[in-house]
Amino acid sequence: MIRTLLALSGLALLAYGAVLAWEFATSRAVNAAQGAAWFLGGPLIHDGIVAPAVGLTGLVLTRIVPTPWRTPVAVGAVLSGILTLIAIPLLWRPYGTALNPGLHDRNYGAGIVIALAAVWLAVVAAGVAQQLRTARR
Amino acid sequence: MTNDNTIGRTPNESPTGAPGGPPDLTLPASTDRKGRLGRVVHRLRPAEDSRLGRLIDRLQPPLERDFHSPAHDKKVTARLGIWLGVAFLLCFVTGLLSHAIQKPPSWFVWPAEPVNLYRLTQGVHVLSGIAAIPLLLAKLWSVYPRLFARPLVRSLPHALERLSILVLSGAAFFELTTGLFNATQNYPWGFYFLAAHYAVAWLAAGSILLHVAVKLPVIRRGLTRLGPEPDAGAMSRRAFLRTTYLATGVAVVATAGTTIPLLRNVSPLSWRSDRGPQGLPVNRTARAAGVTWDPTWRLEVIGVDRTVRLSLTDLEALPQRTADLPIACVEGWSQNATWTGIPVADLMQLAGADPNNAVHVTSLERKGAYRTSVLPATHTHGTLLALRLNGARLAPDHGFPCRIIAPSRPGVLQTKWVQRLEVR
User: Fold this and answer.
1) Which residue of B203, B212, B234 is in closest CB contact with A62?
2) Rounded distance, CA B200 to CA B170, Å?
3) Which strands sit side by side in the sheet containing B418-423, from one edge to the other?
4) Which pLDDT does position B3 carry in this prediction?
């Protein structure tokens, strides 16, 4: 019963979204082409490039990083990846609006470097702590 | 070494030095026994038991069973799915609210109190979107092996389900990437963001509901106790979940300074700073808007049967009210400030109009999507036509000579450089 309700409401929202998307895509040529590219680009880039790269990185990390360091280094890599991903629209701005006073006018290069330094400092601290704990055992 | 491997090779060429059989002369010279490999390819291909051969073997597309990490456990997927669902639900509801405030349907009423309400809902919209980025990536990693399930399609319902998941994934990525880029005012596309983001939001919401409907039994089973961790070299399920939650928290803290003043100097990726004139960010400068002010300017207040024209001196001579009101932008940034000006309701009465009517506001800007705005009747009493900001005259970039500052409304509707107020 609840599944049917969920499925029907899901289909209703999808149908409304499809109508809106159709209106959007047919109103201008650029909408259809670029809209489709941005829509399909996510799954394609993720499934074809990002996920395999993350998987291989994980595989390499488990091979070369000694056990006590494995989790801290993996966590550090995940945090670095996420922070870098979110920083992209602030660092890469050939299509950005002109700088407005008070908006996106900070030094994001320095910001991300400091953030990553903090992450890896924590990784080193956690790794050393883990190693000492393993050694004591 | 299998005999297959030595085809096309004379024994003394064999890299391992093992004696091979004579070339099979019954097959064309360019193919192996199964008629597949070219002679050149064959010569270049390393032996199957060599290191390189094993590596090449491993580089084949994986199968679902090749993924061993505990992160792919359904219990992990279900837990991440719940959090991702919460993030998307918050995003969807607050997004619909913001859309309704900007393009109000006739039945929609948005209260003027509390004054920080829009600041809160839009802050939630942007931060839940940020939180959804690590959650989505972790959730997809958790189910990534399913992508390699074979056969590709088992039945028509299965085909439709896979298609709905493509829509879900496409819509989710579309909303998060376009949303993040829009929040930082970066537009690497040629379409109108608002229409696209709004349409795809419905696709995302619909495909999520459908997905939950299909997966409900799996989700129910997945939400049972985690139990003891299986012994594996990779990250345990708990460690994977904790890492995801930590990454989500870090992503939120890294950007939340954009709306939470306490985190302003903590968030390295906050897209607002304190560098704006009078301590307030500017979304559109007077120069960009092409606005110049000259002393012959008069504010026009058009009532039902009379029009009042007021110079800046006239406006400054009227009774003023001071209020602390936030500017809260659709891009998620917000900032509180102290504004002084004339309540819009007072100006309407000055022009002989009933203050319980909507007011059409027109800017000195000649073009731009936000040149005009409509202040709903619910807001006329709480809204100021502001002349001063934090104790000083408005900076040109903040809308000198006067601007609208309404409680709990999106920043783009806080019309600057006001030329005309009109009651229709």
Assistant:
1) B234
2) 9
3) B307-310, B299-302, B418-423, B359-363, B372-375
4) 38
Query: Across the interface, do B250 and A98 touch by the CB < 8 Å criterion?
Result: no
Of residues B330, B312, B297, B303, the one with CA closest to residue B386: B312
- Domains assigned to chain B: 3-60 (no CATH), 70-263 (no CATH), 282-423 (3.90.420.10)
Does A60 contact chain B (CB < 8 Å)?
Answer: no
pLDDT in tens, B306-346: 999 999 999 999 999 999 999 999 999 999 999 999 999 99
Q: Which region among A58-67, B7-16, B179-188, B300-309 has the lowest average model confidence (pLDDT)?
A: B7-16
A1 close contact with B: CB closer than 8 A: no
The verdict on residue A101 lying in a domain is yes
Cα atoms in the 13 Å half-sphere on the side-chain side of B349: 10
Residue span of the structural domain in which A107 resides: 66-137
* ipTM value: 0.96
What pTM was estimated for this model as a whole?
0.88
Helix, strand, or coil (residue B347): helix
User: pLDDT for B60-94, tens place per residue?
Assistant: 778 888 888 889 999 999 999 999 999 999 999 99
